[in-house]
TrEMBL record:
Topology in the lipid bilayer: Multi-pass membrane protein
Stored SUPFAM superfamilies: Family A G protein-coupled receptor-like
Keyword terms of this UniProt record: G-protein coupled receptor, Membrane, Receptor, Signal, Transducer, Transmembrane, Transmembrane helix
Bilayer-spanning residue ranges: 39-60
Organism: Oryzias javanicus (Javanese ricefish)
Gene3D superfamilies on file: Rhodopsin 7-helix transmembrane proteins
InterPro entries attached to this UniProt entry: GPCR_Rhodpsn_7TM
Protein name: G-protein coupled receptors family 1 profile domain-containing protein
Length: 88
């Protein structure tokens, strides 16, 4: 699942790079006007890979979810202790 999501997110960017390398006039800079909207889409998809990764880990791994909840509970307990000591 993670590999599939990673591939789907990065495929437009790699496809655009290959198209720009194949086009002699572009110089692989991405400045060709006909790729304008697709360049934005490819950048958004590649960036969304970073956002999707932790979400997929939470959805797929029960151990990851348990460890994440334990971490937040520990931080919450530490915050309550700090508040209690400052008010005394």
């Amino acid at each position: 699942m993670l590999v599939l999501a990673f591939t789907l997110c990065w495929l437009p960017s790699y496809g655009l790079t290959l198209a720009l390398l194949a086009e002699k006039n572009s110089g692989a800079t991405g400045t060709t006007p006909r790729y304008g909207p697709f360049t934005v889409f490819a950048s958004l998809m590649a960036t969304s890979s970073t956002v999707m990764n932790p979400i997929l880990y939470v959805l797929m791994s029960q151990k990851f979810r348990q460890d994440l909840l334990r971490l937040f509970k520990r931080r919450e307990k530490r915050a309550k202790t700090a508040i209690a000591t400052t008010t005394v």
